[in-house]
Amino acid sequence: MSDAISKLRNALVVGNAQKEDAMLSAIEEIIRLMKEVKQYQDKASFGVPTKGPALVKRYQVWECKIVISDDVALPNGFDWPPRRAAIKAVEDAGIEVLACFSGWGGALTSVQLEVMKHHE
Predict the structure, then answer these.
(1) pTM of the complete model
(2) Are residues 26 and 67 in the same domain?
C-alpha cells in the first residue's frame, strides 16, 4: 500500500502534463490492492466449492502463516509439530478436521509483506 501512496503523493507534485498519468497509475495500484484484499477475504471467509458451480457445500478454512527469519535452519520434519498442535486445538473444541495442508514453503501476499516491513 505504501507504493500506491507514494505514487499518489508524487502525482501531486509533478507538472500538469504528467499529473493525470501519475494519479491514474496510483489509483490503479490502489484498486489492484483492494481487489487482492477482497479476494483474500472472500477465500478465507467462505471457502471454495469442491466441484463445479452447482455445488452449494463450502468449507470453512482457517489460515495461519508462521513467519520466521530466512536464516533459521529448521530441523527435518519440523512441519509436523505446528501442524499437530493446530489439528489438536480444533479437535479439542469438538470440531472434526477434514484436512490440514501446511508446510514451510508458503509465501506472503503483498499486503502481508507491507505489514512485515513494520516489524523489521
Answers:
(1) 0.47
(2) no
List the grid coordinates of 45.
471467509
Query: Dihedral sign, CA of 71, 77, 83, 85?
Result: negative
Extract the C-alpha cell encoding 65. Answer: 502463516
Q: Are residues 115 and 77 in the same domain?
A: yes
Q: Is residue 56 part of a domain?
A: no
pLDDT band per the 50, 70, 90 thresholds, residue 45: very low
Contacts of 77 (CB under 8 A, 6+ apart): none
Question: What pLDDT was estimated at residue 86?
Answer: 92
Q: Is the pLDDT at 92 greater than 70, yes or no?
A: yes
Largest CA distance in the chain: 63
Per-residue model confidence (pLDDT) at position 25: 76
Domain count, the chain: 2
Full residue range of the structural domain in which residue 14 is found = 1-48
Grid coordinates belonging to 1: 500500500
Grid coordinates given for 49 = 466449492
